Amino acid sequence: MSIFQRISFFVIAIVFLASCSSTSKINTLKPEPEDASPLIYDNKPSFISLPVALKIKDIENQTNKFLTGIIYEDNNIQDDDYTIKIWKQAPIIIENENGKIKTVLPLKVNVKYRIGTDKLGVALYTTQEFNFNGMITLMSSINLNNWKLKTKTEFKSMVWKESPSVKAFGKDVSITYLINPAIQLFKSKIEKAIDEAIEQSMDFKPNVLDALDKIATPSEMSPEYETWLRIVPTELYATEAQLKGQSIVMQMGLKCTIETLIGQQPAKIFDKNKIILKPVTKMPDNFTANIVAVSTYKDASKIITKNFEGQEFASGSRKVKVMNVALWHKNDKIVIALDLTGSLTGTIYLTGLPKYNETTKEIYFDKLDYAIDTKSSLIRTANWLASGVILKKMEESCRYSLQPNLEEGKKTMLSYLSNFSPMPGVFVNGKMGDINFTEVQLTNKAILAFLTVNGKVAIKVDGLE
């Protein structure tokens, strides 16, 4: 063989070997996604029962803080010959008596009384001033109206600690004789003062709305998976308040929607100004929460792309890597686009049905296969990749776990059930069961996993500041 023939043979061999190991390119027809209209889905509401126990001692403390100093004052001596000022002398005592609130109010009374006549334009008066102490007893019925604890108070009795008399114009005049008629005038003022003090000091609405607003702010459950929990309160319920022992008890309830969302922090869509307290006769003693886990195709694509990092799929000397993954919805199935590099470059398309694995808590794709045009193109250009063996290996990475979401979601929800204190003196405790899967639904923008959880919760008010 001549030197020219040897060189020619060598060049041909190199070209042949190079052609055998060179990269092939595939052109496949993209299954176009369906119309990307706004994401709309039916999120079943959750009902959370909230039994509430409010210590009467807290009502006593708050009422004493609100009701201080002068509680009644009449400075006009011309109309009835006396002026009167009444102070709260010592802390009010409030307790349960036969299903009603009994209020004992220690008073200090200052009275200026004039005695005399006004005849023929000549005024002949003498004025005496007295200070003495008494104890008023009032009884109140209770109810809850628009998150305010309201009472209807009735004056029951007044007991004077002393009953002095004074000599005026040669006569002994009993002070109680002068004061007792005035009680009919100021008792309604005392009743009103007690009712207003309890209503103002026991107005839970601002605190409840602030607590709901805090709960409704989306909280991040997992930075790695970019998952968020969003609770949207929609309605509040309450039964009649009742006295039991030294507490006021009532059954309250919250209607809300609960979502877990993947991606950027979602917007808070709760408007506390639109919440209305609805009266009901009875509430269940547990809660049922329906949770929807929303995975937009864009965000699910990011998670699955991470699954393929560092992996190679080989058949003999031929190897490919998946550089990027994109998902979308078409004809009730999910299209999975895989951008390949290596022995084959280009994009191949898989289709499958999303399913939920109860054991691994994963969304996976059942009946995963190459799209029709992709399969035809692979048979023509890269038959080695068309084999079910490599497809099966790829299928293992075409999934994402809800387990971290569920665990973080449960952890977040339990944080509201473990002595959670939305305000000083208010404590929320409870328990919840496992989060259970119900179904998967597809929309044109997201994969939805619907979950349920049951449990119990209770609120205790003890030690309000």
Biggest sheet, in brief?
11 strands, mixed
How many angstroms does the end-to-end distance come to?
106 Å
Helices and strands: which structural class?
alpha+beta
Counting DSSP E segments of at least 2 residues, the number of strands comes to 26
Mean pLDDT: 82
CATH class of the domain at 57-201: Alpha Beta
Shape descriptor: rod-shaped
Q: Treating each run of at least 4 consecutive H or I residues as one helix, how many helices? A: 8
Report on the structure:
With 465 residues, this protein is α+β, with helices and mostly antiparallel strands. It has a domain at 57-201: Bactericidal permeability-increasing protein, domain 1, CATH 3.15.10. The chain is built from 8 helices and 26 strands. It has helices at 3-21, 56-66, 175-201, 205-216, 297-307, 372-381, 388-397, 403-415; strands at residues 24-26, 46-55, 70-74, 82-88, 93-97, 100-119, 122-145, 148-160, 165-168, 171-174, 219-222, 227-238, 242-244, 247-262, 277-279, 287-296, 313-315, 318-330, 333-342, 344-357, 362-370, 399-401, 418-420, 426-432, 436-442, 446-461. Strands 2, 11, 12, 13, 14, 15, 16, 23, 24, 25 and 26 form an 11-stranded mixed sheet that branches. Strands 1, 17, 18, 19, 20, 21 and 22 form a 7-stranded mixed sheet that branches. Strands 3, 4, 5, 6, 7 and 8 form a 6-stranded antiparallel sheet that branches. β18 and β19 (333-342) form a beta hairpin. α2 (56-66) crosses α3. It is rod-shaped, with a radius of gyration of 39 Å. Residues 1-21 have low confidence and may be disordered.
